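Shipment paperwork, digital attachment
Item: protein structure file
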Amino acid sequence: MTLDPTIQNAINTWAVPFDIGAVSITDFNHNCHGNLKHTASVNVTRDARLTFSIHDRGAWNTPGNNVYALVMDNKIIKLGGTCTSIQSRMTSIRAGRSTQQIKNPRGGYHKGKGSVTNKRTHYTIVNEVICHGRTCHVYAWKVPDHEVHLEVLGRHVTQPVQTYLAYESAIFSIYEDMAGKMPILCSNVPR
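Attachment content:
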């Protein structure tokens, strides 16, 4: 498929090569006790926009502590966590489309001030789905919420804890034990 040159330029700038040796979601999820659920399929339009076909609305929309896996052809390309909903996190990745290589609706170019993580993730998905015909899916796990009770200035205060950070560390460790490295999109180190 011939792509608009601005989209091809963005792919060349931001996409990370697919790792065919990555750990499968099936094997990984077995080590996570089956907690990651297939939540959405990722679709890509010809103009490099991500859309999502939701398979589990509850997992997609539920705010709070969540961990997730982005999966390409059954191989994990990114693991992460969020204290918002999976929908909100995927919206951030979708915003990675706005780079200096892509025109905005007014005909000028975007300033490209977005997150490096979101740009790399977005354009890796675009490249692999459009150019290589791969499939992309989101798996998610709504992890338990916890709160701590503190005494602050003589007052008893209840504070929610971002437990996703502990679960994210655990899934990173499990993946690294299985693969000897992290997934391709879990590092912002330049290529």
